[in-house]
Structures are given as C-alpha cells and as structure tokens.
Amino acid sequence: MERLKSNGGGHVNSAFDPNLDEPPIYEETEFSNDEHRTVRPSVISAFGHDTLDRVPNINFYRNAGSVSGHRAVRPSLQELHDVFQKNGRISVPETVTDNDEGSEGTPSDDLESAAPSDAKDGGIKFGWIRGVLVRCMLNIWGVMLFIRLSWVFGQAGWGLGIVVIALSCVVTTITGLSMSAICTNGVVRGGGAYYMISRSLGPEFGGSIGLIFAFANAVAVAMYVVGFAETVVDLLKEYATLMVDEINDIRIIGCITVVLLLGISVAGMEWEAKAQIVLLVILLVAIVNVFVGTALPPTADKKSKGFFGYNTKIFMENFTPDFRNGETFFSVFAVFFPAATGILAGANISGDLRDAQAAIPKGTLLAILITGVTYLAVALCVSGTVVRDATGNTTDLAFPELPCNGSAAVACELGYDFSSCATEKCNFGLMNNFQVMTMVSGFGPLITAGTFSATLSSALASLVSAPKVFQALCKDNLYKALHFFAKGHGKNNEPIRGYVLTFIISVAFILIGDLNAIAPIISNFFLASYALINFSCFHASYAKSPGWRPAYKYYNMWLSLLGALLCCVVMFVINWWAALLTYGIEILLYIYVTVKKPDVNWGSSTQAVTFVSAVSNALSLSGVEDHVKNFRPQILALTGSVRARPALLDLAHSITKNYGLCFSCEVFVGQRSEVLQEMTSGMEKNQLWLNKTKRRAFYAAVACDSFRKGAESLLQASGLGRMRPNTLMIGFKRNWRTAGTEAVQSYVGILHDAFDFEYGTVVLRMSQGLDVSHLVEAEEEMLKAAKEQQILDGEMMPNGGKARGLFRKSRNSSQQVLTTRVSVCGPPPPQVAKMNERLVEASAQFKKKQPKGTTDVWWLFDDGGLTLLLPYILSTRKKWKDSKLRIFVAGQPGRTEIDKQEMRSLLHKFRITCSDITVIDDIHVRPHDNSIKKLEDMIEPFRLHEGSKGRDQAEGMQKEYPWKITDAELSTFEEKTNLQIRLNELLQEHSKSANLIVLSLPIARKGSISDFLYMAWLEVLTKDLPPIMLIRGNHKSVLTFYS
C-alpha cells in the first residue's frame, strides 16, 4: 500500500485510522529511506503502515445509540475494497448519530438504545450486596418465617418439612442457575425478568410475561402491606384501641403505609436502599432472637403453651407427619412455597446495578443458600423445643400415676397433661398457634418488629420492582397504549409514572380486593416467570446458537428444562384454577403481541431454533424423492421490485399462499460496481415490505450485465435442496414492438431458458399492463420531498420543531420544498392521468375478492397437467371461490360428445370439479381475413422480404438482419400462425367476460421460430381479452388419479 507523506503534520488521507477512544496521538517517525511521517504509534506497531482498517474495539460492537446516541463504525467491506478505485479518497465517519431511528431504520427507543446512566453523572449504582443479596434475602424472609413456618413443620413433621424446604430451594436454585446463565450472556439492562425472557425467547413471550409479572408485583405490594396492617390491628385489638373496626382499620393503616413507602421509593433508589438496610438489621436481630430464645430455660407459662426447650423426645415425636383438617403434603407445600418467590428482587432492578452480569448470579444464589439454611435452622429449632398441641393452662399438670400414651405422651413425660387436645381444640402448640416464634423468642416484641420488617421490606421491594419492570416493557413499545409509562425522570431515570400506577393498583386491592383469593394467582404469576426463565435457558442451549456464550458455566440445559417443568407442576399444586387462569392470560397476551408484530429484533433463541428446524427439515426433505402427489407449484416471479408489478405478485401469491415457495425476483442490469449498492440497499427494504403486506414470499435479486443472464442465474441458483422453484411466472412484454431487438431477444431467451431448465412457465397479460414502477417512484419522490420539508420546518422552528405560542409558524410556507419538487415534474396530462388511474385499479385486481363469474381454462395441449392444476388451486382460495371453472378442450368434428365425456371422466378421476366442459371442434377453421391482415401489419416492420431478392442478396440480408422474420419462416409456420389468430377469435367469442383466462402457452422451437414472430403469436393470441395466463408445464405429470 502506498505510503503517505506528512503534510504539515496532517495526513493527506482523510480515511486514516484515528483512535476511537480518544483523540489520535501522532509522533514523528523516521524510516530507512530518510522519509519522515507523523504516524499513530498503535497502528504502526501493529501493521507498519497507514491503513483504513480499524483495530478491534468494543465501540464497534455496541448497539445503535447505546452511548449517548453515538456508536463507532468500522469501514464497510465495500469501502475497503473500492479504496484504490477511488484514489483513497474515502471519508469514513468515526461515529454515527442515531436520533430517532436505529441503524436498521427501526425505532431505537428500546432498552438497547438507552444511554446507560453512570454513577459519575449522579446516577446511583449498586453492587451485588446492596443491590441483589440484601433485596433477595429480605424478600425471601417473609412473614412465613415468623407466623406459618411452625405450622408447616407441625403438619408435615420435620422429616417432610425438610423435603418441603428442599424442594422449594431446588426450584429456586435451578431458576437461579438458569438466570445466571442468561444474564451473563451479554449486557443486562433494566427490566429484570422481563428483559431476560424477552431477549431470550422474543417479544411474544417477554411481552406476555412482562405485563403479568409487573402486575403481580403491584398486587404483591397490597398483599404485604395488608399483612403488615393485620399485625398492627392485632396489637390494637390487644390493647383495645381500634379506630373504627377491624376491616376498616386494616384499610386505613394499609393506605397510610403505601403512601409512606411510595414517598421512600420516589425519593430515589439511594433512600430506598437505606431503608432496606435498616429493615434487614431489624430482621436479623429478630431471627437471632428466636435462636437465643430456644436456648433459654422455659418458664411455666411457656411450658403450658408447649415450649419445653431442646428435648430429643420432642424432636423425634415431631419427625413424623400429622396432617389434620384435610391438609396434605401438597397443600402444606403450597402454603410454604410463596415464601421462596423473592429471588427476582435483585434482578428486577438490573438497570440500577453497577455490574448486573456479576451481581445477579452471585447475590441471588447466595441469598437462596442463606435463606434456605435459615428457614431450615429455625424450623428444626422449633421442632426440637415445641410440642404439637398444648392447652396453655398452667394447671394441666400430669400426675405420676397416670399412664403417658397417645399424641400427648411426650408432654406427659415432661409433666403436663395435654390429652384434652385430642377431643377439644387447643390454642397452643405447633399445630394451633401462629405466634409460636413470639412465644419461644427471648424478647417477644422483637418478633413483632421482625414481622413488620419482613412485610415492609417485601412491600418496598415489590413497589420498586413493578415500576422498573413496567418501564422496561413500555420502553420496548410492545403495547402502544402503555408507551406513556416509558418516560423516566431524574439522573436515575426513575419511573415516576410507574410508581403512581403501582400505588393506585395496590391501594385499590387494599380497599376492595379479596387478597386471600388473589394470593394464589400472584404466586402463579411469579412461578410462570420462573418457568419461562428456566425454559429460556434450555431453549437457548438447545438452539446451539454461536451467540449463546454465557460466562456462567454452572448450568445444564436439561436441568433448566426440569426446573421449568417443576415450576409448572408447582403452579397446579398451589392452585389448579389459578394455574389455568395464568396460562390463559399469558396465551391471550402472547397472541396479542404476535398479531401486533412489534418492530423489534433481539436475536431470540426462538429465531435460532426456527433456523435449526428449517435446516433440519430441508436436509430431511432432500433425502426424499419427489412424488407427483406432493407436487406443488413453487413460483419464481420476475416482478422487479416487489412493488413494481403488484398484479403479478398477487396472482403468484394466491397460488402459493402459505403452502408453497414464492420468489419475487429482480435483475439489476449494469456494471456490478454501479448497481451493487442499489441492490444491497433494496434487499432488506423489499423483504420488509413483503412481510408487512403479509405476502408469504422471498425477495431475491442479482446484478448482471444483461437481463437474460440475471434471469438465468435466478433460474439455476434459487432455492435450497428440494425447496426450489419449479415454475417461472413472467409478465407479457407489451412494448416488444418498440423495445428494440436486444430486449426482445432477451425476453424470448428467458422463456427458452425456462424450458431448457424444465421449468413450468406462466406468462401473464393484462390489457392495462403490469408495470407500475413509475407510479411507485413518483410516490417515493413525493414522500421524500415531504420529509425534507418536515426537516426544514424543524430547523427553522425553535424547540426542535415544536412550535409554541408566538413562535408558531404559518403552514403556508411548509409546502416550499414539496411544491418546488412537484412543480419541476408538473402534473401529468389528463389522458396519462386516466391511464395511470386504470393501471392502478388493474394492478389491485387480484388483491381483492373476485366477483361472481368464471375462470376459463383452455387446456389445449397436455403439458403434464399444470395448465389445469394452477386454476384449480386458485379456485380453492377464498378470494376465488365465486369464480367457477369452465374447461375448454379441442375436439374433432363429429366427436364432440365423446370428447366431452372423456374429459369429464378424466376430471372426475382427478377429483377436480368444474361448472361446464366445452369442446371446440372448429379450431382448424381458417381465421377471418381482417384478423390475418392485422397480424401481417403487425409484423411488417420485422419482415426481411428476402423472397423477392436474388439469392446472394437474400443471404446477405439474412446475415445482416438475422433476427428478422423470413418469408420461408412465415410459409413454414403458416398453419401455426393461423392457429394463434383463430384461438383469439374463439377466445373473444367464448371467454370475453371471464374473470381470468388460462390458456396453453405455444412453444417456440429454438432455431426455427424467430423471436419477433413468436412475440407476434403471443400478442395476437392474447389481444383485447380479460387477464390471461399462458401456461406450459414441463411435460412431467403434476396430476395423478392414484391414491
């Protein structure tokens, strides 16, 4: 590569590679040839010369707009490849700015494009302890620890109780492992579980689970606050200080509590984190208080209530289960498991973590371990010190002469007679008293404080989680109506609107909600999130996508699948109708997002699995030999741009629909270097248009020096394995008489190539024409002009184009660019405008439902059945159901009925119904003289007229004009020429009013029939008729009457 000399300390080459992270630093370098240059050390040390190539840099791999709206760009392959052709004068921008659109032209206001907040700018970022560990522990250590844990172990015994806790920990641990794998497979932004599921499984799964997960957190706030309020009301009752009554006091205290929690949350994450630390300290003291209390010697009052201190006999008596009141292992498990559903508390604020990839796995898994051990330890301590039943009466002492047996045998041995509990309901003991922890603790009020701490911390965590997840969901704009809640405020991008919505929901449920009924639904919502997190990990692993490279390696895809199944089972164990309701809501939301088709592409594992399945199915199909019963037309339509010939594309799509391949193909004619950029830029745009307009077709384009070579490439290379096109569909060339020799030869040559490659061939003609590309270009020009004017208006207007008050611009000047651009072209003449109007109307003919009428099939030559199969397929489509098939066949005079009966029998065997069969027995009749005269006048400019010349002169003329129609050719094919004229007369007579005519396509023998004569045949055959399809199969059977 040529070396560039220094020019006053600045480089001549504008495309020299500068440092992407900071301003380039240059130093003087002396070379062996006494040349001095200013060079950048890092580039010279790596390559020894100036280069347009960039060294690897993280900024090249950022998503659009990820760093304050700017991202670094590396030189494109074309820029590197063409640099010498353009004398090295290529300017490669260092960064690009994404204002309203991402790099692909899609909205860039999703989570990927949000500028990450930095602690240096005032935003609060948490480490793994404050951000994840503390939050998860507080959420898992709920009121279950102090109120219901003793009851669980009383019912199940500590043997099955350990199984209950272990099974819960297994589910949460597997989910934690799966979550760790997902969140270490790339940068994790705000949104927690929603973000991970949506980026793994796609917007359909993420959008459905994100909404119900955010709602579940909002309602969970009400549940935890009501738990807190109930504890407060119990204290008020104890001291006879109720304000109104029990229910209304719960509502009043609950609403006041939510307001206070909302104030803490809105004040900022830093205040919320400080509040969590205070609550954690209280909770830890309360837990320690339980352990200390069990070690203290029991008082007589505590003994009467079933607490005797550590005793082996009590411990062994509590080993076996003692299910009462219809409880079972699964019902007890259903009571306990919701306590374990706090493992996402840290992940839910993933956007506020300093390093979410490191913090979430470490904090979540450690929290599961610590809380699991704590639950187990507290439960075992209580199981070894408290009996199942106690009267609470200090006078119920056991006398030595009484035998100790039955369920109260251990208490009897310890000096207390609780045998009455076998016949009467007692209020104390593991089975009866929810305040066992308060009784056994060293200082009872601390347990009450611990209960307050547990409920308030869980409520606060849910109050923070719900708006964060909801904001992430709204930012992705999956639900257009909810985009209002995407806006954040302050340096930490706090979702104030989400906080208010969560507050309203929680207050509403506190005031009117039946929380006992709603509780199992909320637990199932959380479990559905866990199930999808596990399934996301399994799905991504199963897809074997090269992009699935989690830094966390301690996971297993089958273990994740087991975790997903366990979550689904637990959902039904907790409450079967709540599980069904959860699935129903999730399916409805999934369908809604799927139908809306959000304009996002996150590279989900669903896409990866779809690709793997497609490859697998294609390979399986390639090993199966084609069979006539499974034949279906796979159409390669030469439409040009997908919008250029809508009628051709619509008809092709009507045939293939969702059941066959359809290629919309375009050939860019010219030097490859000149047309390549246009072709490349149009590839994605055309495919997106097909998807948007629900055409199940593929767009393919090639760049070639000639149209025929491009079409030949498409015919040979399109498709994959058995999934290859077998039918060419092309529009009739209406301007063949003025297009020039080369264009006509190219067009007819494509038909010859299709026959050579054994393609079925379809030529479509409509009297108004097919090509509307000039109208599409005019429309795009108008839209471009309007956009330019909009930009101009924005530049001339203050506040970025948002005119307000005195600065509101007059709309009269807003047409400046638009009027100028349109006036250059000027409006079309009335005649042209009317033609364009008819053309647009005709181009949409096959898009709408066909009126009542007929599809006339002139099956004149047996081509394998394609001429009959295609109109039959059309007749099965909803838009064509009112267009009945009529079959026309050629017959001999005097055999009309016999020929009709034979055709009817054949159609019956093919199971194809038609409304009528007509035998044409006068095809051989000579056409009218005026029809022949019209053909002669048509081909006159293309005739050689060598018959009236001498032999040598005639040979010279043939060499000079080899493409012209010779007299010998006309004489040889006079009968076939007359046949085309006669067929047009018959078509005018029988099918003038048909919705569509299908006719066997005449074949031009290579080297025998000139291109212009063949075009004259097609012209005279299809002139002045309704839409007509000329079809010729490849003469291999596509119909069979065998089963």
TrEMBL record:
Ranges of residues in domain SLC12A transporter C-terminal: 645-1043
List the transmembrane segments. 132-153, 159-188, 209-230, 250-270, 277-296, 329-351, 363-387, 443-466, 499-519, 525-543, 555-578
Gene3D superfamilies given in the database record? Amino acid/polyamine transporter I
- Any idea where this protein resides? Cell membrane
Entry-linked InterPro entries: AA-permease/SLC12A_dom, AA_permease_N, SLC12_C, SLC12A1/SLC12A2, SLC12A_fam
Q: Where is the composition biased (Acidic residues)?
A: 97-112
Judging by the UniProt lineage, the source's domain of life is Eukaryota
Q: Name one GO cellular component term.
A: apical plasma membrane
Ranges where the record places region Disordered:
1-37, 92-117
What name is this protein filed under?
Solute carrier family 12 member 1
